[in-house]
Amino acid sequence: MNEQRPGPEALGASARPRGAKEIAPGVYFLAGFGNTTFLIGSEGVAVVDPGLFINGPRVVEELRAITDLEVRYVIYTHGHYDHAFGTPAILEDARVRGHQPPEIVGHANVAKRFERYAKTAGHLAQTFDLQFASWGEGGGDVVRKAQYCPPTISYEDHLELNGLGDRVIECRHGLGETDDHTWVWVPDARVIVGGDFIVSSMPNAGTPFRVQRYVLEWAEALEDMAAVHPVAVVSGHGGVFTEDAEEMLSVTAASLRWLDAEVVRRLNEGQWQEQILDEVELPAELAESTYLQPLYGCTSFAVRDLLRRYVGWYDGNPSMLFPSTRADIAAEVLAMTGGSESIFARVDELSAGTGADQQLALHLIDFVIFAGGEHAAEGHARKADLLDARAASEQSFVAHNVLKSTAVIERKMATD
Ligand SMILES: [Zn+2]
Question: Which residues are in the Metallo-beta-lactamase domain (predicted)?
Answer without folding.
Answer: 33-237
